[in-house]
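#lab-general

N.A. 3:47 PM
ok so I finally got the sequence cleaned up, no stray characters, all 282 residues accounted for. can someone with queue access submit it? mine expired

B.Y. 3:52 PM
send it over

N.A. 3:53 PM
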Amino acid sequence: MPTFDTLISTTELADRLGAADLVVCDVRFDLAQPDWGDAQYRAGHVPGAVFVHLDRDLSAPKTGRNGRHPLPTPEQAAATFGRLGIAAGKQVVAYDQASGMFASRLWWMLRWLGFDAVAVLDGGFAKWTAEGRLVASDVPTPVPAPFAARRVTPTLNATGVVASLARQTLCIVDARAPERFRGETEPLDPVAGHIPGARNRPYAQNLNPDQTFKGAGVLRAEFEALLDGAPHDVVVHSCGSGVSACHNILAMEVAGMRGTRLYPGSWSEWCADPSRPVATGT
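B.Y. 4:20 PM
back already:
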């Protein structure tokens, strides 16, 4: 069977359900209601899917200075993936309620550790159910597997971002909504604004009205206009807490624009230190 490493359609997933090499992960989440996704999963999910919680499974403990969804260590992440039954030879499919914002975090974390056979369900659970596809309410117990990181892809930390500002060596792409980027409102973090010099690409701009991803050609044209000639290897993605930034990384990979990096701490880490500069406006 083919390997999927960016997106998978509902039809392609339906055709693969029940395969021994398939691991489906339900990553539905609500930032305002952390238990919402778990309740939704228990009410109904893609058959065979295991639930993955953004806070408990895809984040490290918070210290107050490391952001709202700190990145686990590679060892912690590998242990989580092994517990979920992910190992070499498996095809992983991640989905959330619709947009892929939370599913892309799992997608990115697996790619971060060198596991490439992972894809986000295009259109998420909303599209799956709208098409009348099978839904289950049983809670399967994952069979642990020997997950091993093949590599650890470099990320960027706050120190690296600070060091780049004077030299303007990085192209920071911020995935938050425009009003948050401009500093007009901030519903989640104590300080409003953005990292000086950052460019705004709200992750929602990667999607069609039905919450599926735009085509590769459209995405490429839009990102090329945003980057304005900046090479991919200087692009660093940020957002509020290192989640929706992964959506932009996924969109760029769909567009064939690989090799960009993540600032996992993102704005929630950046603004926790008052010595770091803050910009507002466009």
